[in-house]
Structures are given as structure tokens and as C-alpha cells.
Specification:
Largest sheet: 3 strands, parallel
CATH class of the largest domain: Alpha Beta
Radius of gyration: 20 Å
Order of helices and strands: HEEEHEHEHH
CATH architecture of the largest domain: 3-Layer(aba) Sandwich
Number of domains: 2
Strand order of the largest sheet: 4-3-5
Number of strands: 5
Helix content: 25-40%
Number of helices: 5
């Protein structure tokens, strides 16, 4: 049974976003072999400091409070770790309904938590990101719009650039 090739297209895009290359070799009647090459920088578990930037070159901590609305637990861990290394405090919500509950709009404004940014996944169960965003914007008295968009897998540099652009 032949597939549509969608998985290969997605894999190619992910590998390229990580700075890698995807290749294929195929022989009729024998099948196909797919491989990729990416270069990753590994941190030394012993903490020797090799391949690490000196402290004076590290970007300053962002000191922001961010609500991350994401249903995928792996994405939650990765993005939370990235944001934490940037000096951000992160609260999690697994879907739009949980995000709205965390924003506590039913409380007086002085008792509502303050978030510098909300990162919203678009496709989620219970209440998707677009509907949630429109509800948040309505509460703020603004039009239902997203301020920016990052595609997954999210790269640390793109995440920081988006944050710096909007804060």
C-alpha cells in the first residue's frame, strides 16, 4: 500500500529546520532507505565548559512571565526549558479551556495573573488556539488576532527573536 508522502514532506521540513539534510536511496523491488544528517551541540555532562559561550556573551535574562498553552507534553518540556534558560517563568495550560481558567477573567482585574506573553498552540483538544485567542482578545476589548507565528519545531533563536520583538 502506498502512502501519500506527507510524512516524508514533514520529516524533510523538520530536518531542514534543524539545519540538516534528508536523503533517500531507492532500488526497484528492494525498497527505499531514508536518512538524515543534523549537527547538534552537546553539553558536556561533566560541566567542563567546552563549546560554551563565555558568560559575558550570554544574552541577558528576559525576566518575563509567560503562559504556554500546548497539549503535547514533549513540546511543553522543550519550550519550557528553552524559556527557562532565557530567564522566563512559565505557567502551563494543556488546552484553551485551561488557559482561560488560568487567566481568571472572572476575578477582579487586580486579582488576575499578569502574563507578558501567551504562546498558544493552534490545534488542541477541548478548545483550540484560534477560538481561545479570540476569546482572550474579546476580554481585552481587542480584535481577534494573533500577534505572531512560529512553526514547530521551534528554534531557540526564533523564539527569543519573537519575544524580543513583542516585549
Amino acid at each position: 500500500m502506498n502512502g501519500s508522502g506527507l510524512g516524508l514532506a514533514i520529516s524533510k521540513k523538520m530536518v531542514e529546520q534543524l539545519g540538516g539534510r534528508l536523503s533517500v536511496s531507492s532500488e526497484p523491488g528492494q525498497g527505499s532507505e531514508f536518512s538524515f544528517i543534523i549537527t547538534v551541540q552537546m553539553e558536556d555532562a561533566a560541566g567542563s565548559g567546552q563549546d560554551q559561550r563565555p558568560a559575558e556573551e550570554s544574552p541577558p535574562a528576559l525576566n518575563l512571565h509567560i503562559l504556554l498553552v500546548e497539549d503535547n507534553q514533549l513540546n511543553q518540556r522543550i519550550i519550557t526549558k528553552m524559556l527557562g534558560k532565557m530567564g522566563c517563568q512559565v505557567d502551563l495550560a494543556e488546552n484553551g479551556h485551561e488557559a482561560l481558567e488560568q487567566l481568571k477573567y472572572m476575578l477582579p482585574e487586580a486579582d488576575q495573573p499578569y502574563y507578558d506573553l501567551i504562546f498558544m498552540d493552534i490545534q488542541m483538544p477541548v478548545l483550540d488556539g484560534l477560538k481561545t485567542t479570540s476569546m482572550i482578545r474579546a476580554q481585552e476589548g481587542e480584535g481577534a488576532r494573533l500577534d505572531d507565528y512560529l512553526s514547530k519545531p521551534v528554534r531557540r533563536e526564533d523564539l527569543r527573536a519573537a519575544i524580543e520583538q513583542h516585549c
